[in-house]
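Crash report, auto-generated. Payload:
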Amino acid sequence: MKRARSIYEIYEHLPKTNCGQCGTHCMGFAGYLLARDVRPADCPGLSDPAFAESRRVLEEMLGSGVKNERTGLIVYDDRCIGCGICVSVCPVHSVDHREVAVGKGPRFGDGAVIEIVDGRVRLARPERCNRAIPSAPPCKACADFCPTDAMELV
Amino acid sequence: MSVEKFTRQFLQADEEGRLETQDGSLASESGVEGLESRVCCGCSCLCDDISYQMRQGQVVRSLNLCQVGRKRLQDASAARQGADSGLTEGLLEDSLDKAAQILRTHGPVLFVGAEFLDEEAQQASVRLAKALGGIWVPWAFEAVRRFHQVACKMGWAAALLDDVRDHAEVVIFWRCDPLVTHHRHLSRYSFFARGRFTERGHHDRTLAAVGEKGCRIERLCKQFLDVPPDQDRALAESLRRGRAQEGFAHRDFDGIRKACEQGVYIAIFVDPEAVDPGTLETIFLWAAETNQAGGSRRVVILPLYRTGPNLEGFCQVSTAACGAPWGADFSEAAGRSIQRDWQELAAQGGCVFLLYPAGREESRPLPATIAGKPSIVLDPFSPSRADLLDVTIQVELGGLGAEGVFFRADGVPLRASGLPGLPRFGLKSAAEVLESLFTRIL
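Recovered output after restart:
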C-alpha cells in the first residue's frame, strides 16, 4: 500500500460530511491525519460500518509508526532492512563522526542521531537532529534516501 | 532496573570501549558488557563495525547489524537454546559416528557449501574431500566459473572495495540488487560512503542499475535501465562504443552514456549468475580497452555473488587445490577442476555433505537430483540429529560462537573473532567437526 503523500489522498477516504465532531472540518482533519497528530479512529464518521473499508485504507496509508514530536520523524519498523543509508547521509554525522562519513557505523556512546539497533533504524538522539533546531535549514536526508520507505517526515 | 530501560539511557564508552552511565554506577550493576568492531559473516560485505552488548552470556543488543545479520543472529541464538540441554556431547559423538559410516559406505561424496565456512574449515573440508575422493563445489558454482573464465579470457579489472569508495564516480549494478542481497553495501562501500576523492559521497557519484522494474535499488538510481535480459549484450556494446547500437534504444541510455564518458572511474558490480557470458565478455572488453588506453580513466568490475560470506576464500582454497576457483574433483589422485555442470555432479554423488544448510535465504534449495540421497549437514541453526541415512551436526556459527578468517569479495581477509563470554554448550566449530570426521574415517 502506497503511503499517503498529500492531504487530498487522505481527504478522498473521509466521510466529507464536515460534521465538526472532531473539532474541525474534513479537510482540516485530513491535514491533522497527514501530520499524524490524530488517528483515523478519532473521526466519529469513520466508525460507521459504511466507512469500514475507507478506515482500513487510511490505516494502511498512514501506517502504524509513532511520530517523534521533536523531529517529525516516523519509523516503520516492518519496512526497515537495516541498510544504514540513513546513518550515512545524516549531515550531523558527516560533521561530527568521520568514521560514519566513510562508511563505518557508529559505536555505542558515539552520540549518533540515528542508529541501526537490532537490525532496525532507531532515532537515538532526536535533540541532535537538525530538525530539532529551529534555526537550522529543514533536513529530509534520511527519509529521502530510504529505499524501502521505512522513514517518513511529517 | 530492566536491561531495556538501562540501554535506553545515554551511555558513554570509555577508551577501552567499556560502557558506563553518567553517574558511573549502573553499568556494573546491570552486568552489561560492550563489544565493538566485531565482524558479521552474514554476507560478503563482512561488516567489521558491529557492536554488541552482552549480559550473562547473551546478546541483548546489537548495533549496525542489517536484517540479514540480525536474522542470522536470532536463528543461531534460538538453536543454542536447544543445545543448552546437557545432551550435546553424547549426541555429537553419535552423529559423528553415523556421519563417518555414511561417508565410508556411500561414495562418491559431493561436498557443497564451503563458501559459508571460515578458511580453516574450508581447508579441513578440502582435506576430507581429497581423502574420500569426493567432489567439492560451492552453491555458486556456475556463477564463479562463469566470472573467472571470462575474466581470465578478457583480462582482469579488479579493485579493492576501499578503492571503489575512494574513487568511483559512476557505480553500475548490473542484474544485481545490493539492497536485497548485501543490505549495507551502498552505505559502506559503493555509493553513499565518502571517499578520499569523492568527499561528498553520493553527491559526487552517479548511481545506475540494469535490472527488472520494481527492484529496490531503482528508486535510488539516477539512471535505471529496465532492459530485457536478451538486450544486455546490446546495452554493454553500446556503452563500450559510446553510442546506441542498431536496434537498441532506451530513454535512460543517453544519461548513463554521458555519465560514463565524463566519469574518470567507473565501478561495475555484476551478478555473474544473472548475466550471460556474452554480455560479461563485452563488459570486460570495455574495461580492458579503457584501462589499456592510458590516461586516468578506469573501469573496474567486481562480482556480487548472491551466496556465501566467504566465496572469495573458497576460490583461493580451490585454486590451491586444483588450479581453478570453482571447485575440485578429487576422484582421481590429483585434484582437477570441474568441467561438468551442477546437476550432473549432483546426480553422480552417492551421498551429499552439506557444509551449510540448504534452503535458507542466503544458500540454495537442494537440486532435485540430490533429494533422497543420504546426507550429512553441518547446521548452526538446528539441533544435532542422527538417523540411519541422514545426519545433522549442530556447529558453532562462524563469527559468533566460532572465530575464523573470512575473505571479503575483493580478497581482503578479516578475522571474525566471535563473542567471548558466549557459552559454547559443547558445540564445536565446523573445522573441529571436520577434523574429527577425518580422524574417524582414516
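Post-recovery validation: The longest helix of chain A spans residues 52-62.
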